[in-house]
Amino acid sequence: MTTEISIAQQFCGPPNSGNGGYVSGILAKPLSGVVTAVLRAPPPLNTPLFLKPFGDGVRLETAEGDLIGEGRPGDISDIPTPPAPPTLEEAKAAAPGFPGLHRPFHPICFSCGDKLEEGFGLRVFTGQVAGREPGLVAGPWTPNPAFADEAGLVPTEVLWAALDCAGSVAWVVTEGGGGLLGTMTCEVLRRPAVGEACIVMAWPIEQQGRRRISGTALFTAGGELLARSHQVWIGRPPVAQAA
What's the rounded Cα separation, in Å, for the pair 85 and 220? Predict the structure, then answer.
């Protein structure tokens, strides 16, 4: 069955297109288990889009039939085992190192924008964890009640968004280059309740030309793994330093 949706401005990544993790989560929501979401074009905002069954997955298309993204069952072997998570206090100490707090990044991004109010954006700020390998970044995240579903849990698309930008930050803090999310494969073990203190963590895996591959994970404050992902980012030049 085809479902019409529209991605509101609130859920942007870059100012004029949807947040990659959020849109990937929309593609994952109708499916179960491990899901791979592939973005084929920048998701337009405030525009009718159509989520259609396609094989064993789904496609997101414009009214004209242009392909925006695809979701399909993923392979658990594609998802890396996360390193040991930092403590919540270590994640809090790392968060002020988030590059977007010090130089141009994505100030209105739904996931990591520092100019968005709590409950409108997620405000996931991740920075290098002291004493850990270069690029292992983390930050605290407590889901706001504004994002609760009917069961009081974080919706799939919001959880995927929370895991999104940290994967790029893991590369930004090591060699300065950001990117746009191309592919994300995610396993959700448990969706957290709103108000539940969590840790978002990410680490770089490898670079293949312009492709930068990252792992991200979501933990409880006590270290329980809630979700983990494998991400492929299409690289961009290093972020300019603030004057």
Answer: 10
- pLDDT tens digit string along 199-241? 999 999 999 888 999 999 999 999 999 999 999 999 765 544 4
**Residue 56, CB-side half-sphere exposure with 13 Å CA sphere:** 8
Write phi, then psi, for 7 (nearest 5 degrees).
-90, 115
Q: Which two tokens stand for residue 2?
A: 């085809």
Query: Which residues lie closer than 8 Å to 107 by C-beta, 6 or more apart?
Result: 100, 113, 114, 115
Sheet holding 177-188, edge to edge: 3-5, 49-54, 57-62, 67-73, 35-39, 177-188, 225-238, 211-220, 198-208, 137-141, 127-128
Which tens digits make up the pLDDT trace of 155-182? Answer: 999 999 999 999 999 999 997 677 899 9
